[in-house]
Amino acid sequence: MSDARFVGKTIVITGAGGNFGRAGCLFFTKRGASVVAWDNNESALMETINEVRSQDEANYIRIEGYTCDVTSEDSVRSTLESVLSDFSRIDMLWNNAGYQGEIKPTLEYDIEDFSRVMNINVTGAFIVLQSVAKIMAGQSRGEQDSSHPFSIVNTASVAGLRGTPAMVAYSSSKAAILAMTVAVAKKDLAPHGIRVNSISPALIGPGYMWTRQNELHASSGSPYFSSDPEQVAEAKIGGVPMKRLGTIEEVLKSVAYLLSSDSSYTTGTNLVVDGGLSGGLKA
């Protein structure tokens, strides 16, 4: 299932041990990309690597895993040194690592957890973005093609657009990602041939993440949620104009569009994948 948009390209995927990151590693390796998988959880990362390699019947997939703490500039720098030694270049980045944090009403939210969410989701995302962009900018100076061959996609969320009850830290962090995407894309990185966009999914499932979040919302004590997880799920889906959950595959196809040359004249844009939940035009 090779795809000319990704054959010969090297893609860094952070948060590769999580559901979205693991699916992304499978998705892009199947399409011919070389994938650089990052996660701070070594065991989860190795599960991803092993799962991807088990799909490699033709023995053509190339994926390597790197344990990296995105909140540490030193860890990111040393990891990138290893990546460049192994792969020689980076063409694309899916800046996907994140932490959901507690699900509690604002008046009960733990300050330390709020700081942790912001440190991983915002500071960590910026450290990775800046570090990879420096490499891309250096590569850009040596490119014959003066178009915008390098692409970064940040994982945001509809929570950053409309807020989610009992998730003040997560919503705040994803709003910051939206602002960061626009700030770096439109002025700072475009002259270096680097496009930067974001993806904002919502209500993706079924699966563990969907089920667990409904359980946590039900037990949060927020007046906006029923205490019954099944009723929480029904109410959420009922609020979606398309009346269904989105799939991880649908999110990945949107990420692929933004990373690829199909979106070559698109930068500083947020692509919402939510079945119409957030409403209105978002750019």
UniProtKB/TrEMBL annotation:
GO molecular function terms attached to this record: oxidoreductase activity
Oxidoreductase found in the keyword field: yes
UniProt entry tagged with the keyword Membrane: no
Xref: Pfam families: adh_short_C2
SUPFAM superfamilies: NAD(P)-binding Rossmann-fold domains (SSF51735)
Family: Belongs to the short-chain dehydrogenases/reductases (SDR) family.
Designated name of the protein: Uncharacterized protein
